[in-house]
Amino acid sequence: MIVGTVRETKAEEYRVGLTPEGVHALAQAGHRVLVEDGAGLGSGFDDHAYRGAGAEVVRSAEQVWQEADLLVKVKEPQPHEFDRLRPGLTLFGYLHLASLPETTRALLDRRVTAIAFETVELPDGTLPLLVPMSQIAGRMAIEVGAQWLRRPGPGRGKLVSGLAGSPPAHVVILGSGTVGTNACAVALALGARVTMMDQDLERTRHLEATWRGRVTILISTPMAIAESLKGADLLIGAILVPGGIVPKLVSREMVRSMGPGAVVVDVCIDQGGCVETSRPTSHADPVYVEEGVVHYCVPNMPGAVPYTATAALAAATLPFILRLANHGPEDALRSDPALARGLNTYDGHIAYRPLAEAQGLPHRPIDQLL
Q: Catalytic residue at 96?
């Protein structure tokens, strides 16, 4: 099989889909690997390293798109890449299609087999390819929030830890999954006062036992969210609906109640965001102020730490990439339930039910497609 990766073109995205280690494993398995020149520079991998691992480094991204049977990307195709999509191509990467109807339509029209990292799911419900990036995003969320609370800038000029005579920042975290728990750990390490909220009663009981006396754990009812956000310094949106759109749990009025100079970090913006006032931003222009509150809503937060993110992502994705390459996409999807859950589009049809429901489009189960 011909496996390829290209330089990411999303704004300020420096991660890369394949590392030299991954290239070496694919080459050793007998596959041809194409890498666009400079694709790995942002993550610390030069072309010499890829050649040494067995890749063909080519100058044209177009050549990789045209020749690859399996294209491994980090982020979804950008609009200028839609014309490069074609039947027979298997695309493997973070897609987050529920909030991207134009990208979904392009994949359907061009009959691409699109497998999303974020919906590959193990039998126990674990999302193995989403976990490492969620860990990074959760830890970054507190760092980012602390940065934008400071001045100069629109923040209220508050130190997260506080000190004698001045109380610590109040951090509210909506969601207690991988993003939320990683954010909580960093916030506690910095000395913040933390309130964490979730709808899962059993989950909240476990968290209360884990962080007894250190974190306020609440069920995330509308009233509880509203009360917790009054005067809060930092809100972390950490809700996850695998493959779908997250609900707007935080209203404009709740945002306003935080007060001028507070900060919202909506980590789930790639699923539409859980805050009514959220809209996507970028690493180049990361924040805006609405209702007096600073909003940071960058969809690809881990792209800011590509050295760390690419290494962690590659370790998680390589076994699945090898499975797809060694057995071919159809056989790999038939034999691996986790990969099958990751299939979003196939031969012009939507195979992932939450995506179809989010966009009001027909759904065809994978057993009818393969």
A: yes
